Amino acid sequence: MLPPRILGLLVILLAVQGLCKPTKSTEDLDYEDDTPFEEEDEENEEEDENLGPVEAPPQILSQRISLRVKAGSTVILPCQVIHTENYAVAWMKDNKILYFEAQPHVEDSKRIVRLPNNSLAIYNASASDSSNDYKCSILRQPDSINLTHRLLVDPIREQSAASPPPQHSHKGIIRVMPSRRVEVNQGHTIKLGCETDTQPPPEIKWFIENKKVDGYDPDVILDGNYITIRKVNRSHSGLYQCLAEDGSKTPAMEAINVIVHYVPEIEVKRHIVHSGESIESEMTCIVSAYPEAIITWYKDGKEITHKKGSIVLHHGVMKGNKTKHVLKILHTSMQDFGEYECRAENSVGRDTKSITLTGVPSQARISGAEMTNNDAGIILKWHLESYSPIREYRLQYRRKGDEKWNVIQPEVKDGKGNQFTVEHPIEELQPGSYEAILTARNAFGWSVPSEPHMFTGDYPSEMAQKDGNSAAIQTPGILLALILVVLSCAFTSL
Ligand SMILES: *[C@@H]1O[C@H](CO)[C@@H](O)[C@H](O)[C@H]1NC(C)=O
Ligand SMILES: *[C@@H]1O[C@H](CO)[C@@H](O)[C@H](O)[C@H]1NC(C)=O
Ligand SMILES: *[C@@H]1O[C@H](CO)[C@@H](O)[C@H](O)[C@H]1NC(C)=O
Ligand SMILES: *[C@@H]1O[C@H](CO)[C@@H](O)[C@H](O)[C@H]1NC(C)=O
Ligand SMILES: *[C@@H]1O[C@H](CO)[C@@H](O)[C@H](O)[C@H]1NC(C)=O
User: Fold this and answer.
1) pLDDT greater than 50 at residue 492
2) Among 47, 195, 327, 431, who pairs with 309 as Cys (CB 3.0-4.6 Å)?
3) Which residues fall in a compositionally biased region of kind Acidic residues (predicted)?
4) What is the pLDDT of residues 79-111, one digit of tens each?
5) Ligand 5 site, residue 237, Cβ cutoff 6 A
6) Substitution candidate for ligand 2 out of 124, 128, 130, 158 with most atoms within 8 A of CB
7) The Cα angle at residue 177 between residues 176 and 181, in degrees rounded to 5
């Protein structure tokens, strides 16, 4: 056992180490529809500097197979790999990613499952699972190692066309036009139809996603047996059903599935990411696209790729054709600061958004305002983040209408980790409204100026005398009102 004094010292040392640990540079984004996605293996975060034996080449041990099964069967496609510690392994079907490592890129990831031994299991297979190109791929530069399987799923025979349909069936009454499945690119015009030969002609009623067509969308034009959609966009995707109203209890119905291919749209929640040297920086793009877009990150026109121990690229699937893409720089250095770009591209088009990674302090936000003791001034309080020590603050304020700013330098106090607060009184206010702006500087430069904070020194002119103290004692009601005005200003600007 260690003597208690040394033990105590150790505990303190550990605690201090804990405090000094770099914090993450980004707040957690809170997307409601965010599906959790798995953290990449921790081993990626370790610098691999050991000069051990040359690593064995990665390999796929399984053999290619061709399977033919009946609809409803369970299919297991094997892909046993070795020496893939430093490589990602993906499953693809027709060159579309199904699984990237253990992360699903398929919507029905309960039915199509990547097993722990890296086999791909397909439960309740259907004809649409058929493909000559199920590929298991060890993603190695410059050329991946692939294993391709073939799968043919025989659909369950519906009633053979030869046998006569039952008398009361409505099958075949409606012919859909152009087909039961319509894929269309954004911006085009499509015409859907349900045609019948029965006499007298039944009235055709249309439903979109089980809702009666209401004529609310000016681009969806209803004309009896036909629907025309002009300037198709992604909101027009869905099931279009038509019902032949013939007065019977079981009117015939048909449906057309409209699938709109649309240009990717990138959403960035944080356009400026504040970080510092040797800490982790994280940038995120959310992409909505159909078909799924391919996302690439760029800095200064150069593509960024996964780099063991320093750069991690994450992908995650979210609801509603959205994917989440994270670029992590594990140990940020000076050269990493700058403009980043995430680019999303699919067969229809592309979108690009930029994110700035910077070491300067974040934009300060007002966090409080209160009267000074002599009631002739106001104490303003700001909050900001900086991942390196603050060197100076600059507080400027002026009365509305004045051209000149008053500039003061609030004192720099130690922050708590990367969180800093600034508090400074502004004295001798005149009646009227004021605005104040705070900027902060650290080793990397000046922050963006805070949003101007409005406050008022608006009290009756007799109180604007030098002797503010005695005036305040005589008229506490007015003072209270003044405080309320100031406070309400402070909180509306939060
Ligand atoms: C992988 O695991 C599944 C389920 O446990 C099993 O059926 C299959 O045979 C395994 N494949 C290989 C190649 O070990
Ligand atoms: C299997 O898939 C078919 C459609 O392909 C579906 O109708 C059926 O309910 C599924 N069965 C199970 C057990 O999930
Ligand atoms: C493996 O598949 C990838 C992606 O489809 C392709 O780019 C690559 O050339 C293939 N590698 C080999 C050796 O066939
Ligand atoms: C799609 O088009 C409709 C009607 O023309 C419009 O109201 C809607 O905002 C569009 N949606 C998108 C995502 O562009
Ligand atoms: C994804 O987009 C396609 C085509 O626009 C659409 O058919 C499908 O319903 C969408 N999926 C989700 C989950 O919104």
Assistant:
1) no
2) 47
3) 28-50
4) 999 988 888 899 999 989 999 888 899 888 999
5) yes
6) 124
7) 80
